[in-house]
Amino acid sequence: MDLLLWITIGFIIIGFAVLVSMKKGMESKLAFIKANMEDEESSTKAKSIIWWIVSTAAWGIVSIFLVVWCFHNYFG
Protein backbone atom coordinates (compact mmCIF):
# COMPACT_ATOMS: atom_id res chain seq x y z
CA MET A 1 0.00 0.00 0.00
CA ASP A 2 1.07 3.53 -0.64
CA LEU A 3 2.62 5.76 2.02
CA LEU A 4 -0.06 8.43 1.50
CA LEU A 5 -2.77 5.93 2.38
CA TRP A 6 -0.97 4.88 5.58
CA ILE A 7 -0.44 8.51 6.58
CA THR A 8 -4.13 9.24 6.00
CA ILE A 9 -5.35 6.22 7.95
CA GLY A 10 -2.89 6.86 10.79
CA PHE A 11 -3.76 10.55 10.99
CA ILE A 12 -7.49 9.83 11.16
CA ILE A 13 -7.24 7.01 13.71
CA ILE A 14 -4.73 8.71 15.99
CA GLY A 15 -6.59 12.02 15.81
CA PHE A 16 -9.90 10.34 16.60
CA ALA A 17 -8.37 8.51 19.57
CA VAL A 18 -6.92 11.75 20.94
CA LEU A 19 -10.22 13.60 20.56
CA VAL A 20 -12.20 10.83 22.24
CA SER A 21 -9.72 10.63 25.10
CA MET A 22 -9.96 14.41 25.67
CA LYS A 23 -13.76 14.50 25.47
CA LYS A 24 -14.39 13.61 29.11
CA GLY A 25 -12.03 16.33 30.34
CA MET A 26 -13.77 18.91 28.18
CA GLU A 27 -17.15 17.84 29.54
CA SER A 28 -15.93 18.31 33.12
CA LYS A 29 -14.48 21.74 32.26
CA LEU A 30 -17.82 22.74 30.74
CA ALA A 31 -19.65 21.58 33.86
CA PHE A 32 -17.26 23.64 35.99
CA ILE A 33 -17.88 26.71 33.85
CA LYS A 34 -21.65 26.29 34.10
CA ALA A 35 -21.43 25.98 37.88
CA ASN A 36 -18.97 28.87 38.42
CA MET A 37 -19.80 31.51 35.82
CA GLU A 38 -18.10 34.41 37.65
CA ASP A 39 -14.90 32.58 38.59
CA GLU A 40 -11.58 33.71 37.07
CA GLU A 41 -10.65 30.09 36.35
CA SER A 42 -13.76 29.74 34.16
CA SER A 43 -12.18 32.07 31.63
CA THR A 44 -9.08 29.90 31.21
CA LYS A 45 -11.17 26.73 31.02
CA ALA A 46 -13.39 28.34 28.39
CA LYS A 47 -10.34 29.21 26.33
CA SER A 48 -9.14 25.61 26.49
CA ILE A 49 -12.56 24.39 25.32
CA ILE A 50 -12.52 26.87 22.44
CA TRP A 51 -9.04 25.69 21.40
CA TRP A 52 -10.22 22.07 21.59
CA ILE A 53 -13.11 22.91 19.24
CA VAL A 54 -10.77 24.77 16.86
CA SER A 55 -8.28 21.90 16.83
CA THR A 56 -11.09 19.39 16.24
CA ALA A 57 -12.29 21.42 13.27
CA ALA A 58 -8.74 21.67 11.91
CA TRP A 59 -8.26 17.90 12.32
CA GLY A 60 -11.52 17.32 10.43
CA ILE A 61 -10.54 19.63 7.58
CA VAL A 62 -7.10 18.03 7.21
CA SER A 63 -8.67 14.55 7.35
CA ILE A 64 -11.11 15.44 4.57
CA PHE A 65 -8.28 16.90 2.50
CA LEU A 66 -6.20 13.73 2.93
CA VAL A 67 -9.10 11.45 2.00
CA VAL A 68 -9.86 13.48 -1.12
CA TRP A 69 -6.16 13.46 -2.03
CA CYS A 70 -6.05 9.66 -1.64
CA PHE A 71 -9.11 9.21 -3.86
CA HIS A 72 -7.57 11.54 -6.43
CA ASN A 73 -4.31 9.53 -6.45
CA TYR A 74 -5.95 6.10 -6.64
CA PHE A 75 -8.96 6.75 -8.86
CA GLY A 76 -8.06 9.90 -10.78
Structure described in brief:
The chain is an all-alpha fold and 76 residues long. The chain is 91% helix and 0% strand.
Distance between the termini: 17 Å
Rg, rounded, reads: 17 Å
Number of domains: 1
What's the overall average pLDDT, rounded?
A: 93
Question: How would you summarize the topology of this molecule?
Answer:
Blueprint: H1 3-35, H2 40-75
Helix pairs in contact: 1-2
Task: Provide an overview of this structure.
With 76 residues, the chain is an all-alpha fold. The protein has one domain (3-75). Helices cover 91% and strands 0% of the residues. The two termini are 17 Å apart. The model has no long low-confidence stretch (mean pLDDT 93).
Notable features of this structure?
76 residues, mainly alpha, 2 helices, 91% helix
